[in-house]
Known about the structure:
By secondary structure, the protein is an alpha/beta fold. Helices cover about 45% and strands about 10% of the residues. α17 crosses α18 (about 450-455) and α18 packs across α20 (about 485-495). The longest helix is centred in the last third of the chain and has 27 residues, at about 610-639. It is globular, with a radius of gyration of 28 Å. The structure holds adenosine-5'-diphosphate and zinc ion.
Amino acid sequence: MTQPRMRAPAGRESPCSVATLFDADPSTALKHHFGFDAFRPLQREIVDDVLGGRDVFALLPTGGGKSLCFQLPAVMGSGLTIVVSPLIALMKDQVDALTASGIPATYLNSTLDWSDARARLRGLEAGAYRLLYLAPERLALPHALDDLQRLGVARLAIDEAHCISEWGHDFRPDYRRLATLRTAFPGIPVLALTATATERVRRDIVTLLGLRDPRCYVASFDRPNLLYRVLPKGDTFATLLRFVRERSKESGIVYVASRRQAESLSDKLRAAGIAALPYHAGLEPAARAYNQERFRRDDARVMCATIAFGMGIDKPNVRYVVHYDLPKNLEGYYQETGRAGRDGLPADCLLFYSAADVAKQLAFIDEKEERERAHALAGLRLMRHYAETADCRRSVLLGHFGEMLERQPCDGCDNCRTPRLRYDGTVPAQKFLSNVVRVRAAGGFSVGLHHLVDVLIGKATQNVLAWNHDALTTFGIGKDVARDRWLAIGRELVRLGLLRQTPGLRSTLELTDSGRRTLLERATVLMTSGPQALGGGKKRASTTSRAQNGEGDGDGGIDGALFEELRTVRRRVADERDVPAYVIFPDTALRAMARDVPANAGELRRIPGVGDKKLADFGETFLAAIAAYRDRAATSRDE
Ligand code: ADP
Ligand code: ZN
């Protein structure tokens, strides 16, 4: 074969060389093609296995760097890599990004007209590309498999592999066709990638794709660069506005519970001078695509969205995800917050919480079918636990996925950074616990949290009267404390293990052994006060001041003005090429430039994110901008 892509390694000394082949060392190839200095966890192992011809299943969190797991083997190995992805809207971006890195790639999906598709196929037949992004529905076309047979396919990557399973939430019937690919290319290794997979979905992926003795990789779901915080509702909009204004140049997502709210919140933000747009399933597809594009191109800073804004977001520099309302469960919360900080730089996850939100959700759950209810309730209970806990939030989140967090405190959640004040809550605890005992003794049955609190504050509700609970000695002993506070105390006693909550819809509270002992021995009970307001407690300079992943020193030494200047340059270059800014250089690269102030090509190449192709294409422009900035700074110093 004499295809151009089969050339022996082109000299690495020439910065604009096309994709090199048979690169002996993946680390060298990583820097050469993508400009990265180190692999993210498991990337190296996966790349090695894929190059070794093994089937691989990889479960990596969002931002874990899944794309690289097939892109690097695609440039290092011979032959064509087919990438199946359900996200048609993103294919062009991915291909643009690869092209910017000097890697020949193309895509085939329904957005192309017949002649364009034909031309791409001819290019593929001539061996002009290393990667082909393919929409699964293409496989339904006549000749689709025959066409592919002629292309010298060397390996297959299935992105968002969970779409193959009906048990997942993104099931795509077209993904079932992928089994035919396996049959058509029996000898070709398959790499299945996903960020969402329960045990059941994982098994589906392996069997339905027909993976053979696959090596399975499961990365930690910890996202060390994300900071998790919860704030009580009340002045919520004003707090949000302050939060957004403190990050006026950054992009963020604000999740809300309804379409109407997505509209009204974005209106309010716009009225306050913030470039915000709505996104929800009620918008026309064109409007949705337009708003998403504006967000991707940094024209809109804030997306006010329902959870319809989801899988298709691959913007790496989302700096915050705010939940204006309580999510339904922790899985959802993890996925949604996961969209922040894919580039590895610090990002904020903020949840606004009020007990009223729980009540609203309970009302929704009440309307559900019986068999869905228990599941939904359990989910909500955990979500509430996350919002109310005084313990490490990261631990709660990861614990839900069966992962233990080793570093404690995590330094990346409000509770670890500013431990909540504890106070001696022995007296209210005694009142609450003895009330539980009295109520139970009176009627021989347990009751729920709300009823218990009604008795404590002396509220003569229908049930209280019907069950004679107004005659108990504990009736009204908690008048001096507000109802909401008692509800919180009750939930804290559950968290402390002194009370047990029975599962199910009509959940009741019972004393545990430890609760009984505490009551009898009048043991001291330490309780925590509510969460602190934004900006309270230990002062943080800014969201970007945290060291990330143990590397670098955050904002330390970054010239902010130069960074802004470089952003402007990047924006101009991106607009000229009609691509999103991050396709040119990621934020991480610009920050490193603003810190190290490279003066020549050699220094610029040391910046993470600067590969050889980008050095050749954009190096001069950025070096010139840096030099001009330096000159100006020197002049103003001399004056
Ligand atoms: P995922 O699909 O797993 O969410 P992506 O493949 O989109 O993640 O990668 C997320 C971001 O991380 C991208 O901007 C990508 O360029 C960057 N990235 C991937 N691997 C590395 C690495 N080894 N070093 C630095 N950045 C990386
Ligand atoms: Zn923590």
